[in-house]
Amino acid sequence: MNGKDEKTPIDALGAPSSRKTPPATKRCRKNRGMPPPATFDIDALPGSSNLTALEAAAVIRRTPGALEQWRRDSNHPLKWRYVDGRPLYRVDAVRDYLAKCDKTARTAQTHNAHGDGRGARP
Questions:
Q1: What is the pLDDT of residue 27?
Q2: How close are the terminal C-alpha atoms of the chain, in Å?
Q3: In the chain, count of helices (H) and strands (E)?
Q4: 57 and 66 in contact (C-beta within 8 Å)?
Q5: What is the Cα 17 distance to its own chain's centre?
Q6: Could you report the per-residue pLDDT of 85-112, keeping only the tens digit for each?
Q7: What is the DSSP letter of 51?
């Protein structure tokens, strides 16, 4: 068993890098995480230009999955349209949505047990 011609179990199977699966059997997986911040300035773009779902998610700082869920609600304030089966967002619509979000942002309120401004008893 200690001969030079014998292979160890690792040598017999091959190095881990040589055991790659063929590309046809790999499943294509989407990156569903938060995209990196946008590399462009949304204010510098013309209002009539379109953004992809990934670009809009990067500007709004939400995941593409969140935008996908929002598209299921036809009354959502962020408007989109389908072009060749892909959702596109107008820059004007993204700007309007961000402006509405800034206006509706609430100030931090203190919470207490009574809900009427009285402090909790010690």
A1: 73
A2: 77
A3: 4, 3
A4: yes
A5: 31
A6: 999 999 999 999 999 988 877 655 555 5
A7: E
**Burial of 109: CB neighbours in 10 Å, binned 0-12, 13-18, 19+:** exposed
Q: In 10 A of CB 1, how many CB atoms?
A: 3
CA separation for the pair 95, 103 (Å, rounded)? 13
User: Residues 69, 71, 73, CA angle at the centre, nearest 5°?
Assistant: 85
- Token pair for 119: 């402090």
CB proximity list for 100: less than 8 A, separation 6 or greater: 77
**Encoded tokens for 41:** 């300035």
Instruction: Return the exposure string of 76-90: e unless at least 16 CB atoms fall within 10 Å of the residue's CB, then b.
Output: eebebeeeeeebbbb
